[in-house]
Amino acid sequence: MLVFVYEFITGGGMWTLGSDPPAGSLLAEGQAMAAAVIADFAALVDCKVVTLRDARLPPMAWPARTERVDSSAAEESQLDNWASRADWTLVIAPEFQNMLLRRAERVVAMGGRLLSPGPALIELAANKQKAAEHLQQHGVRVPAGCEWPPLHRSRSLPDALPNNLRFPAVWKPLDGCGSLGVELISGSGELAAREWSTAGRLETFCPGMAASVSLLAGPSGVMPLPACEQMLSTDGRFSYQGGRLPLSTDLADRAQSLALAACQSLPAPHGYLGVDLVLGEAASGEEDYVIEINPRLTTSYVGHRRLARENLAGAMLAACAGKPPALSWHSDALEFSAAGEVRVDSNCRPQQARSLP
């Protein structure tokens, strides 16, 4: 079996943007995800892996055939070539500017089979406003909010806000990835003074524990993985710094139940995807909200693979092939950074409720 792992940041996608070589947090997260999932696929019996590598980055000793990419044209041709030849393709890319959607569409157009969500789900989830409206229509709790256009000063501020939106609020790019561009807005005065170059979603800030749930989906159903606490910066930018797991049983049950409801409402959920949420103070879960859907592999993979007794990539393959994935979990607690560094502590207790400041 041949598996093609395409990761946008490390695999030459930045050539498409005409930007400098990959660097910073996106490179760290992309490299961590690519290294982990490539190692897991390569560890499976009779499985070979191929991947792409931006020629401006140093080589990595990954157990995979690695094709160097030195231009946007090379990235496109290599993606098409290997998507058509591989038995399965895993696409990991940011949602902004339709980068993830376009690559998933190309895999499908080349006759490839995805281990990640398909174009219909990506198109919905990548638009934060449409995703929130969809979830709300299907009875899944989301923060009150609205689409917020760029250069909004032409609008009357009171008329622009929905009645149920409260401050502090959060502004996020409409097609953002992770916490890039996300800002906490303290009140209507600050909002009236602000202008953004792109459209976004403005939503009520929901206090509580920031959490995430990854899921494996396929013809046989949807399996939620253990819930994680998200570690975010406290500067109003919500920068992702890693995660901790597992949560206490009551919090984990609430998180998995809400994430499962969100995932099952999506069009043809398939492959590995994640749900970001907030767990409020109410034990009933009535103050829990879905923040967004991540239609791709997320950094929490590096933590889940260490907690799993079985090969997590193998479980992903099983789910996409229509077989119920068999997974069990170690009892250890662990913490992982955005760069993929994992610290395991068998003496740690499950994470209890802890609110964002």
What does this structure look like?
The protein has 357 residues and is of the alpha+beta class. It has three domains: 2-115, Rossmann fold (3-Layer(aba) Sandwich); 144-204, 2-Layer Sandwich (Dna Ligase, domain 1), CATH 3.30.1490; 209-345, ATP-grasp fold, B domain (D-amino Acid Aminotransferase, Chain A, domain 1, 2-Layer Sandwich), CATH 3.30.470.20. It has helices at 24-42, 72-85, 99-109, 119-126, 128-137, 157-160, 188-192, 249-264, 301-307, 312-320, and strands at residues 2-7, 48-54, 65-69, 88-92, 145-148, 169-173, 183-185, 200-204, 209-218, 221-224, 228-232, 240-245, 271-279, 289-294, 333-337, 342-345. A hairpin with a 2-residue loop joins β9 and β10. α2 (72-85) crosses α3 (99-109) and α3 packs antiparallel against α4. Mean pLDDT is 92; it is low at 350-357.
- Please tell me what the overall shape is: globular
What percentage of amino acids are in beta strands? 15-25%
CATH topology name of the largest domain: D-amino Acid Aminotransferase, Chain A, domain 1
What are the low-pLDDT stretches, counting only 5+ consecutive residues below 50?
A: 350-357
Q: What would you give as the CATH superfamily of the largest domain?
A: ATP-grasp fold, B domain
Helix content: 25-40%
| CATH class type of the largest domain | Alpha Beta
Task: Give the N-to-C terminal Cα separation.
Answer: 48 Å
